[in-house]
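Response to reviewer comment R2.3. The reviewers asked that we include at least one raw input/output pair. We reproduce the pair for Adenylosuccinate lyase here without editing.
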Amino acid sequence: MSQDSPDYNTYRTPLASRYASTEMKINFSDQKKFSTWRKLWLYLAQAEKELGLDITDEQLAEMSQNLTNINYKQAAMEEKKFKHDVMAHIHTFGAVCPKAAPIIHLGATSCYVGDNTDLIVLRDGFEILKPKLATCIHLLRNFAMEHKDLPCLSYTHLQAAQVSTVGKRACIWAQDLLMDLKNMERVSSELRFRGVKGTTGTQASFLTLFDGDAAKVKELDRKVTELAGFKSHFIICGQTYPRKVDAEVLSVFASFGATVHKICTDIRLLSSFKELEEPFEAEQIGSSAMPYKRNPMRCERICSLARLLISLIMNPLQTASVQWMERTLDDSANRRVVLPEAFLGADAILMTLQTIFEGLVVYPKVIAKRLEDELPFMASENIIMAMVKEGGNRQECHEKLRSLAIQSASVMKHEGLPCDLIDRIKDDSYFQPILSKLDSCVNATTFIGMSSIQVKNFIEDEVDVALKNYKNNLVKSVKLEI
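Raw output as returned:
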């Protein structure tokens, strides 16, 4: 590619040039958009013919043969002249379909092709995303099952709290992703076609075409909806489909953005503890200045893109709020940016997340070492109970342990030495009655509670049930180009 190429001299959104998949970029491409407009014009003409309008098979055949034969240079010239993208493409389509030209767009308004195409693209975009999200959940499911019994520190306020397991924490992540998958399924299944409604949703133009026959207008709406692959359409709308639909769609992505930001922040923190790492390729460079660096680049990318997804929800909410009466055009330019960016952003995140979950690296010895430093403090209650069973006084034992714990913590903080609380307990004659039981009091596996069982139950009762419809549609391993 030469330096004079437009690819180097014009701006391209990084979501398209660096991050998103080819299939998602195709879904939001001009070719997909404008060929779908032509399909919708064909569906309308087919249905109108079936219901008695004077449209010939020859006209339909001419339209059908030119669905993808789009002269973009001519369309650009027409739009420059008319300042109207739909009229530009009506004329461009008519130029290659001269016999059909008189009946293209018959009775319709711009939103017949514009809005209905958007709904088709949104629906198809969800169909690309759902298997990718299901794949990420499936990978996390396997990771959780593999590590369901591996004890680790859990944290509240980012301070050591109690003992959990690596698999249990993974299930916390998976549960949020499962909610996102269900949200995607719900919103995508509830998408309705705008249908055949005319300029302000009254269907007056179609009622005129069919000489006042309301039953035919209703059947026209049903037929075109069916041809477009939708199960239902809006009965009531203004000029556009309700812009609250866009807010519903982007609320799914905002929620998903919050989920993945939390997951990847957790991984970044665990990486700094050296307990867990995202995969790091053999020739990957973490820093141009520091050769030893192993930065969690993929998680950082996801967090960055997730903030974009979270922020985008404000656009459709504001757009819906200012749609005066039946419609204002100040929705158009905004939606051209926001809707593709949301889907491309979610797509890029899911591709990256899949590579992380495919190669998560766990360091059990580091996890055990960090646990050893904190576990003696967490075992205080167990030690107190053991002493009481041997006839000790609960309050007296509590004070003894508190004093020893403060001494041990001071050594750890001021001298950088490992935790020596257990050694201090062993050296104190007060605890002589339970020395033989001390090891069992600080056995990490006795602190994980129901964690392992919870993992198994969650996987069987929720994850596997939710993924049943995706088992033949999981995404194969992906390799990021950048």
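Residues 187 and 249 are 7 Å apart (CA to CA). Residues 110-146 form the longest helix (37 residues). Further pairs are available on request from the corresponding author.
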